[in-house]
Design brief:
Order of helices and strands of chain A: HHHHHHHHHHHHH
Helix content of chain A: over 70%
CATH architecture of chain A: Orthogonal Bundle
Helix content of chain B: 10-25%
Order of helices and strands of chain B: EEEHEEEHHHHEHEHEEHHEEEEEEEEHEE
Oligomer: heterodimer
Strand order of the largest sheet of chain B: 6-7-8-3-9-10
Structural class of chain A: mainly alpha
Distance between the termini of chain A: 40 Å
Shape of chain B: globular
CATH superfamily of the largest domain in chain B: P-loop containing nucleotide triphosphate hydrolases
Strand content of chain B: 25-35%
Radius of gyration of chain A: 22 Å
Chain lengths: 258, 374
């Protein structure tokens, strides 16, 4: 059997598998019910909530993740390996376990203190952001570290010798050079937050019009046998997901490094 | 004047102990050592990217050891050049002037002069990915020199180039130094490169300085067998001091029954009769005598007869492999092509060779040399 065609055939099989799954959704779509589900206030709310929460969670993850990724990529320090291992916690424990851990935390004295100060997370919108942040912070840091690893520290060394401070060397040289990879990391992290279910539903609950994000809305629609709504939400989720993932492949200009 | 004193670096398997280098203002100093000897670590420590265990660095009267890299006034050209790929050649060149917040108007004329000497005026709007290897080297050198550094650090500046481009860049580097006089410290393992460009040389082997001196002091008169071997010494022999010829003020050395004469004045008081020493002469310092031609005085004392065993032709010279009849001592002799054509040499031919006394170099563990760096 031709080697090349065997390999490409395997890739096409995966494509057909997922495409078949998506197309099968349209089997249950009825025009009127579909439109009603799409324009329902709770559907529109869950779309808005998902977009907002995922964006804020991603912003926070990048805010802390980018300097962390830089530190892990460039410096040697005590506990680096342990820290690096901890980044993978969200990948090894189930999202529900992560959400449950938060529930337990907010019942500890420290957790109660935080809530008593007026910062409410359990069954609240900030809980969604916190759950999504917890799910993606490690991933975002890991992905951004991989992007920074690609850029030789030699560029910064030269920039420093030419008179740049460490901050200037970072934003004048490292940041533009790793921009494409960093942007891809951010988009992937956002997509992951956008589709997050387990930790969010455990910490923030599934209250329509309050804490119901799109993945949660799909779950509740299925639980109440509202197939039209479930399919509408799945298709929107898919559209956003595919759009963002495809945009990763179109991001920025790739530089040829020496 | 650049002074580096007592630099000690301990990093992973590298151990560099008590490195001292002095470079006069406008000097071109080479730190020459084998590949993997930690030369880049030394540059990074001088630049301030790596903290040495001990050591002090002065640029002029100012000690810079406690300063961050951006405040030392040292420019660095790494081996991989690290031209910023997201910036054009022009933006790369003026990067240092902008980063140091210098007035571009003051530097404009100087930068233009550099651009002309480096022949990059037609490349200014290009990105580094569209440059050839030689062009990249030129731009990297220019970028480093543009903010007028007090010290220029070069890490293997001619590595990875085609031979013809290497010669071109070598000449350019020499012209550049002659025109702008940047105080330069260059690390390399390529002793030919150092021979072409250096004023001062530090030989650095196994984490220690083996010899410091002016170029000819080091290349023609290596301090030890280790240095001579690192510098690719071909005609290196174990010899014994046979006698002290007071009347002519010469030491007589013996190798396989043959006697070699060297002036006493070159070796102060470190030689003694019976001592085992190493004798060295560079292949280009061995002369084949043309019969019938008069022989100069300094050549008359060391004349040996023998046979040509083989001849190989190189780009600029011929290598003649000769063996003395008595003692069977082999010599490698390098003869420029234009001179070779006049000598009528062939394999198996019997000829005489003459060794200039001053070109013979005797190495003892305690040979006392007066070495100066520049």
């Amino acid at each position: 059997m031709n080697f090349r065609y065997t390999m490409i055939g395997a890739a096409v099989c995966i494509f057909i598998f997922y495409l078949g799954l998506i197309l099968s959704l349209f089997y249950f779509v009825s025009g009127k019910g579909f439109l009603e589900a799409l324009t329902h206030p709770y559907t529109l709310f869950s779309i808005r909530l998902s977009l907002t929460a995922a964006t804020i969670a991603t912003f926070l993850a990048v805010l802390i993740g980018l300097p962390s990724a830089y530190a892990l990529s460039r410096f040697e320090f005590f506990g680096k390996r342990i820290l690096d291992t901890f980044l993978e916690i969200p990948m090894i424990i189930s999202p529900i376990a992560l959400g449950a851990s938060f529930l337990v935390f907010f019942n500890t004295p420290l957790g109660e203190l935080i809530q008593n100060k007026g910062f409410f997370f359990v069954f609240e919108v900030p809980g969604i952001i916190l759950a999504q942040f917890a799910t993606i912070a490690g991933l975002a840091t890991r992905l951004m570290k991989a992007s920074l690893d690609e850029i030789s520290p030699r560029y910064e060394a030269v920039a420093r010798s030419l008179g740049s401070s460490p901050w200037q060397a970072f934003y004048r040289v490292t940041l533009p050079l790793s921009f494409r990879g960093l942007l891809a990391s951010i988009i992937l992290s956002w997509a992951k937050a956008f589709g997050e279910f387990g930790a969010t539903v455990t910490l923030a609950g599934a209250m329509p019009g309050k804490t119901e994000t799109m993945p949660i809305a799909i779950f509740t629609a299925l639980a109440s046998a509202n197939i039209d709504k479930a399919i509408v939400l799945i298709l929107i989720l898919l559209a956003f997901g595919l759009l963002t993932l495809y945009s990763v492949r179109l991001t920025g200009k790739r530089y040829k490094y020496d | 004047m650049i002074r580096i004193e007592g630099l000690t670096i301990l990093f992973e398997s590298f151990k560099i102990v008590n490195l001292n280098i002095q470079i006069e203002e406008g000097g071109f100093h080479f730190l020459l050592g084998p590949t993997g000897s930690g030369k880049t670590l030394i540059l990074e420590s001088i630049m301030g990217l790596r903290k040495p265990k001990t050591g002090r660095i002065w640029i002029g009267d100012k000690e810079v050891q406690g300063l961050p890299p951006e405040r030392r006034g040292i420019s660095y050209v790494p081996q991989d050049l690290a031209l910023f790929p997201h910036l054009t050649v022009k933006e790369n060149i003026i990067f240092g002037i902008r980063a140091r917040d210098l007035d571009m108007k003051i530097y404009e004329e100087y930068v233009q002069a550099l651009i002309e000497v480096m022949r990059v005026d037609h490349l200014l709007e290009r990105f580094p990915s569209n440059l050839s290897g030689g062009e990249k080297k030129r731009v990297a050198l220019l970028r480093a020199l543009a903010p007028k550094p007090k010290l220029l650090l070069l890490d293997e500046p001619l590595s990875g180039l085609d031979p013809s481009i290497k010669v071109d860049i070598q000449r350019l580097l020499k012209n550049l130094h002659a025109s702008f006089h940047p105080t330069t410290l260059c690390v390399t393992h390529d002793f030919e490169e150092a021979y072409f460009l250096a004023y001062g040389t530090t030989i650095f082997i196994d984490g220690k300085v083996e010899q410091v001196g002016k170029r000819d002091d080091v290349f023609l008169r290596p301090k030890s067998k280790k240095v001579a071997q690192f510098l690719g010494a071909k005609n290196l022999y174990g010899a014994k001091v046979l006698m002290n010829e007071e009347s002519s003020q010469r030491w007589i050395l013996g190798i396989n029954g043959l006697q070699f004469s060297v002036p006493m004045s070159l070796y102060q008081d470190k030689m003694e009769v019976g001592k085992e020493v190493d004798l060295f002469i560079r292949p280009e310092e061995v002369m084949i005598i043309r019969e019938g031609k008069p022989i100069k005085g300094s050549l008359k004392r060391n004349i040996f007869e023998g046979k040509i065993l083989d001849i190989s032709e190189k780009e600029r010279d011929h290598l003649v492999y000769f063996q003395t009849t008595e003692g069977k001592i082999p010599f490698e002799i390098s003869i420029p092509n234009y001179a070779f054509r006049n000598l009528d040499l062939s394999t198996g031919k019997m000829v005489r060779i003459a060794l200039r006394e001053e070109s013979l170099w005797v190495m003892t563990e305690s040979t006392s040399l007066i070495c100066q760096s520049s």
